[in-house]
Amino acid sequence: MSEKPEVGSIVEGKVVRIKPFGAIVSLGEQVQGLVHISQVANTFVQDINDHVKVGDIVKVKVLSIDPETNKIALSMKEALPKEARQPKGDRPYKGHKQENRTTNPAEEYFKPQTVNPSADFEEKMREWMKQSNERQTSLNKRANKRSY
């Protein structure tokens, strides 16, 4: 491929370098693009070396081309057939049971706890008073030692 690919096209390229953040793919003699680690596979990618190696021929979709910097963003997962891609919202979280949830887990976490607020406040106030008295006693002892 001697010319620059168009945004949205699916092309083949050769992996020429691997970086911790992605793979550099050659699309022709003078044309290279980056497949960011998040665009390598449909699953979480801890180590990109588990998915691609230097010299691999891969199909990639051209996501964007920055004309000022000549940077090309590529995606391997977007180049997969539609049957192999799952929309983000339909993927189950690893280790989580998919149940018929009526509430958001975050709402459950941040839901106020049902405790007696006045009793809770009084306990905190007692603890604060105790700590305050201990600090005041310590300061008074220091002041008395200096005055002798």
UniProtKB/TrEMBL annotation:
<feature type="domain" description="S1 motif">
    <location>
        <begin position="8"/>
        <end position="77"/>
    </location>
</feature>
<feature type="region of interest" description="Disordered">
    <location>
        <begin position="76"/>
        <end position="148"/>
    </location>
</feature>
<dbReference type="GO" id="GO:0003735">
    <property type="term" value="F:structural constituent of ribosome"/>
</dbReference>
<dbReference type="Pfam" id="PF00575">
    <property type="entry name" value="S1"/>
</dbReference>
<dbReference type="InterPro" id="IPR012340">
    <property type="entry name" value="NA-bd_OB-fold"/>
</dbReference>
<dbReference type="GO" id="GO:0006412">
    <property type="term" value="P:translation"/>
</dbReference>
<dbReference type="InterPro" id="IPR050437">
    <property type="entry name" value="Ribos_protein_bS1-like"/>
</dbReference>
<dbReference type="GO" id="GO:0005737">
    <property type="term" value="C:cytoplasm"/>
</dbReference>
<dbReference type="GO" id="GO:0003729">
    <property type="term" value="F:mRNA binding"/>
</dbReference>
<dbReference type="InterPro" id="IPR003029">
    <property type="entry name" value="S1_domain"/>
</dbReference>
<feature type="compositionally biased region" description="Basic and acidic residues">
    <location>
        <begin position="121"/>
        <end position="133"/>
    </location>
</feature>
<feature type="compositionally biased region" description="Basic and acidic residues">
    <location>
        <begin position="79"/>
        <end position="100"/>
    </location>
</feature>
<protein>
    <submittedName>
        <fullName>RNA-binding protein S1</fullName>
    </submittedName>
</protein>
